[in-house]
Amino acid sequence: MEIVKRFITDRGRIVPKRNSGVCAKHQRLVASTVKRARYTGYIPYTVD
Fold it and tell me: Distance of CA 25 to CAs 6, 7, 43, 45, Å?
């Protein structure tokens, strides 16, 4: 899950496309992967 954490800010938000450096197609894949990881419990929804 270290790869997914690259696309999460320290506040727990998904990094925008202009900062992540991926194309629009792959940004949609990143967003769905992050949401799936949150749902399955690999990464938290919020930061303490």
Answer: 17, 15, 23, 23
Query: What three-state secondary structure class fits 8?
Result: strand
**Which sequence spans correspond to the domains of the chain?**
2-40
Per-residue pLDDT of the chain (48 residues; tens, 9 = 90+): 789 989 999 999 999 999 999 999 999 999 999 999 999 999 988 887
Beta bridge partners, 14, equal 8
- Do the Cβ atoms of 22 and 2 come closer than 8 Å? no
User: Which helix (H) or strand (E) is 28 found in, with range?
Assistant: helix 24-40
